[in-house]
């Protein structure tokens, strides 16, 4: 067990959101901002340079996403915020794909004009957002500045990420928004006291991420449960709703309110699509089940990961399972950068 002296030192080192910010801390934040924006801009510039030498015609699905961006631009150009029909059209630009990426593309085209360059710039924007969010995510977990930069370089150099960043598919925007939502969720939980404004902003970003592609929900749900379950258990044990549980409820409710309209409207479309796909599989003698689908995805996992990345993945997975309960993520998030040597101290 840690003695009271060590515990007092840790508490004194915790940087809370309400603590006064001195000049050195603001200077460190400016360095972080300049560094991550510079590296992200370099990668976006390389993506744009690649686009400049590539005259490939978008595939059928890519063309559909580009045209949906045009449709959202027209909706934004003729906004009717007080009319139900306008909001309905915004959420049903495509009844199969969520509208957030189309919204971003529409904003780019409305503000900067419609051209092939603007379409490419909107696509490259998500690559930059992904890298900036990753930098923030690593720093929120008290990773060093070098670790954050190396993480950005490794992710930007990964072949699958680079390839998807050069297309108009929704996959890379979904990865970017998922990374952004994870960073926002961790940021909202940082500090010794919850701040409802942070919870509200995190809920908006999580909802937007869920509106980039439905699969994002399955990636965000485990971390959300990581924070929500202990908050609920603590409230049941103490028989009162804690401030952290209020933050969790606010974040979750905001995210649901943001993304619920699209999924409610799209339920009939997804049911029809599911029935059609099940029938097509049955016709060729394949009977897919829920666990069968999960197995199929797990089998394809090594195909999209390099040997090094696959090795790191299993190494970290084994370490997480073996040491679950010995590391406190919340405490790691509260420790300041100068206490990095204490990050992996185990609690007895």
List keywords for this structure.
348 residues, mainly alpha, 15 helices, globular, disordered N terminus
Calculate the mean pLDDT score and round it: 82
Query: How many extended strands?
Result: 0
Low-confidence stretches: 1-20, 334-348
What is the alpha-carbon Rg in Å? 22 Å
Oligomer: single chain
Derived from helix and strand composition plus strand pairing, the structural class reads: mainly alpha
Distance between the termini: 5 Å
State the helicity in percent bands: over 70%
Give structural notes.
By secondary structure, this protein is mainly α. It has a domain at 25-264. The protein is 73% helix and 0% strand. The protein contains 15 helices and no strands. It has helices at residues 4-13, 23-53, 60-77, 84-91, 100-112, 116-140, 145-157, 159-164, 171-188, 196-210, 216-238, 243-283, 290-300, 307-322, 329-334. Helix 3 crosses helix 5 (100-112) and helix 11 packs antiparallel against helix 12 (243-283). The longest helix has 41 residues, at 243-283. It is globular and about 50 Å long. The termini are close together. Mean pLDDT is 82; it is low at 1-20 and 334-348.
Write the layout of secondary structure elements.
Blueprint: H1 4-13, H2 23-53, H3 60-77, H4 84-91, H5 100-112, H6 116-140, H7 145-157, H8 159-164, H9 171-188, H10 196-210, H11 216-238, H12 243-283, H13 290-300, H14 307-322, H15 329-334
């Amino acid at each position: 067990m840690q003695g009271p002296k060590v515990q007092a030192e840790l508490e004194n080192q915790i940087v809370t959101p309400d603590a006064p910010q001195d000049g050195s801390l603001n200077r460190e934040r400016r360095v972080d901002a300049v560094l991550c924006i510079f590296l992200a801009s370099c990668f976006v510039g390389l993506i744009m340079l690649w686009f400049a030498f590539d005259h490939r015609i978008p595939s059928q699905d890519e063309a559909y996403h580009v045209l949906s961006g045009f449709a959202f631009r027209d909706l934004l150009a003729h906004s009717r915020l007080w009319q139900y029909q306008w909001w309905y059209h915004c959420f049903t630009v495509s009844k199969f794909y969520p509208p957030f990426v189309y919204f971003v593309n529409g904003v780019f085209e409305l503000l900067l004009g419609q051209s092939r360059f603007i379409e490419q710039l909107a696509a490259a924007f998500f690559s930059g957002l992904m890298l900036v969010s990753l930098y923030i995510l690593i720093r929120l977990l008290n990773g060093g500045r070098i670790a954050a930069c190396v993480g950005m370089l490794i992710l930007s150099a990964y072949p699958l990420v680079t390839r998807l960043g050069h297309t108009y598919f929704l996959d890379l925007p979904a990865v970017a928004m998922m990374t952004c939502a994870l960073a926002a969720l961790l940021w909202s939980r940082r500090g010794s006291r919850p701040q409802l404004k942070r919870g509200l902003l995190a809920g908006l970003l999580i909802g937007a991420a869920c509106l980039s592609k439905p699969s994002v929900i399955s990636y965000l749900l485990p971390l959300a449960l990581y924070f929500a379950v202990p908050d609920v258990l603590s409230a049941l044990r103490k028989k009162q709703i804690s401030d952290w549980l209020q933050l969790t409820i606010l974040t979750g409710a905001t995210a649901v309110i943001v993304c619920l309209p699209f999924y409610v409207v799209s339920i009939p479309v997804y049911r029809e699509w599911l029935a059609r796909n099940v029938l097509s599989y049955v016709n060729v003698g394949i009977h897919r089940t829920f666990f069968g689908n999960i197995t199929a995805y797990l089998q394809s996992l090594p195909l999209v990961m390099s040997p090094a990345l696959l090795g790191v993945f299993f190494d970290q997975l084994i370490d997480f399972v073996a040491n679950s309960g010995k590391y406190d993520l919340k405490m790691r998030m509260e420790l300041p950068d100068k206490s990095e040597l204490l990050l992996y101290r185990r609690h007895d």
